[in-house]
Structure prediction request, 542 residues.
Amino acid sequence: MILRVWRCLAALACLLGAAPAVAQNCGTIVVPPGLGMGPGADVTSFNPLLTSSLYNQEAAGLIFAPLLWINRFHEIDYARSIASAVSTPDNGKTYDVTLKPWRWSDGVAVSSADVLYTYHLIQALGQAYAGYGQGGVPDLIASVTAPDASHVQVVLKHAVNPQWFILNGLGQLSPLPFHVWGRYSTDEIWQAQSDPAFFRVGDGPLLPVALNIGIDAVFVPNPLYPVGKMNFSRFVMRFSTAEGQELQAVQSGELDMSNIPFALYAKALTLPGDRVVTLPPSYSWHELIPNMANASTRFFGDVRVRQALADAIDQKRIVQLVMHGLGSPVYGPVPPYPDTFLSPAARAGQYPVGYDVAKARKLLVEAGFMPGKDGVLQKNGQRLAFTLLIPAGPPVSIEIAESIQQDLQAVGITMKVRQMEFNQLLAVMAGQPQKWQAILLGMTLGPYPSGEELFTQGAALNNNGYASAEMDRLIKQSTDEPGLAGLFAYQDFASAQQPVIFLPNERYSVLVRNGLHGVRDFLNPLGAWAPEKLYCTKESAP
Prediction:
């Protein structure tokens, strides 16, 4: 709404005689990964089928255009999509997709064969595919066929909720260049995922030319990208700038924009020359992931313990002190903004958990925990104590962890905090379930927040041993039955279950150098970047 009002005011200014800014070429634009989403990490893969982190997804999204572009309001923007239309003639089992004219960067036409290739590569990767299970892909699909070069038909094994499958499933079948990749084995494709030369052909706005480990990834414009012309000659994702130095990097010209650490927000407002742009909330949450698969922390398997953790944590204090008021508490699997998919109970702020220390203590007593000699709760000789792993570096993670540590100590729970490099943390979480007790991370959601890849038994992102037949049933209801009733039931149940301890999401602000424009349209809260929206005005162009 704010953006729409701004556009109306800009139009009025033009009518009154104010001259619009003329777009100039910016030369090189340098940004860190994770803009609008929090502190970033290194890019390690350009392959959209193998990206397990947001930062890799950002890089891959610059190279490959989506079959369906989902905007910040969770609607399909066909102007930016390779598909021009999607229909389901039998209301949920068959999906007909029409492709618009589009070309790879080497001039070859993007066709239905490229969509079929993506599907077959996902099948070949199996559970190595990063999005395995989300939107039912690939197991729900019975067949993918191409009646001709500009049409694809996807037939499912049974009818499902069309809104869910189109947003979460069908959108995964973005075309990949069969005429280039088809000559390589699956293993060769895996091995080449960080090699810019392998990705010399794309259909997105940019093409990679270099990946300098620990330093940056460098891209140049794709001249055949049909959505819009780039107003720069190079685009660099810089990895090496520490969060505490980002404001100085923008001021000195090393970065053109950067996230503003919450602790430095007030200072950023006073910096001369540059400006602060506050973005809509990301469609995400922070989460404390309790490991129920580790024998040393099996107490997390008791829902009363997980509810007590949620009730003991003062999320409003985290928002105010850590995020400087730029955030919202999250108590369930659907973030509060936009409220498109919130259940009636969640919309009314009626959650089964919330900050209630007395309730937390009562739940722990009901679960059989009593204070030991050192004041720490214990049951059958096992102390209610665990170690929380957090990503190394970002102060916001440290501050959230410290706030949680203080809250849990007040109800008799001891939590130690240990930092670990982000990519190592992901590897430990996925590959060593007995080696960690709890992890603090952020989770960015797909456009339809149904949870099949998060909380169903055996799901790709269910790394903590959570299992519930009722959760599986409700998630299946949310994905199979048209309408939102199933999604509402799932999110209310997940809020009570706390399969992970849901924590606040934030509204990030970015510091933008003077003369660089289009930042709000460049950054989509669902994670996709639109670099053609960026431009410079005359006084700032090189």
Observations:
- The CA atoms of residues 391 and 422 lie 5 Å apart.
- The first helix runs from residue 2 to 15.
- The chain has three domains: 24-61+204-279+509-536, 83-181, 284-506.
- The radius of gyration is 24 Å.
